[in-house]
């Protein structure tokens, strides 16, 4: 099968998973380490996938956007079907499956502008040389080449200056999860900026 044939087959599979509300596991290798995601596909564009994440203990917990060509494989096998069956039986699938915010999946810039407009705090994982870096916080500025977010640490202290991240280094953006939606209420302004 040609590469083009594989891409078409993959697009058909992705569309089927989306249309049938299938629970999937997306296998990814980033900087030589596994960085897998599990959940439900909510939207697909030519470039990106929007996934509603299943956290732990059979709960849907936030969303992730990844580039469509940035995963190794996708599985919807017996383990995933068991998880979907449990989520459905527990009423979680019917109660929590969806996203109420429109996210334009045409480019990282469009995605980030929609997330900023809807006041999400985001988690960005990006490649910094040969390791995966992590930033969390509110979006301050979006350009065609970069995004600036005001990162905060595990103590909830906001950085004084926003961190600029090049869009072409982003591996995923997560948002709407319990951690960032709850923690944002308890953030502290750094002492030197008061």
Summarize the structure.
The chain is α+β, with helices and mostly antiparallel strands and 194 residues long. The chain contains 5 helices and 12 strands.
Protein described:
Helices cover 26% and strands 36% of the residues. It has 194 residues and is α+β, with helices and mostly antiparallel strands. The chain has 2 domains: 1-100, SH3 type barrels, CATH 2.30.30; 103-194, SH3 type barrels (Roll). The strands form 2 sheets. It has a 10-stranded antiparallel sheet with strand order 7-1-4-5-6-12-8-9-10-11. Strands 2-3 form a two-stranded antiparallel ribbon. A hairpin with a 3-residue loop joins strand 9 (131-142) and strand 10. The longest helix is centred in the first third of the chain and has 17 residues, at 3-19.
Chart the SSEs and their pairings.
Blueprint: H1 3-19, E1 23-27, E2 29-30, E3 33-34, E4 37-44, E5 48-54, E6 60-67, E7 73-75, H2 78-89, H3 92-96, H4 108-117, E8 121-128, E9 131-142, E10 146-149, E11 163-166, E12 170-175, H5 178-183
Antiparallel strand pairs: 1-4, 1-7, 2-3, 4-5, 5-6, 6-12, 8-9, 8-12, 9-10, 10-11
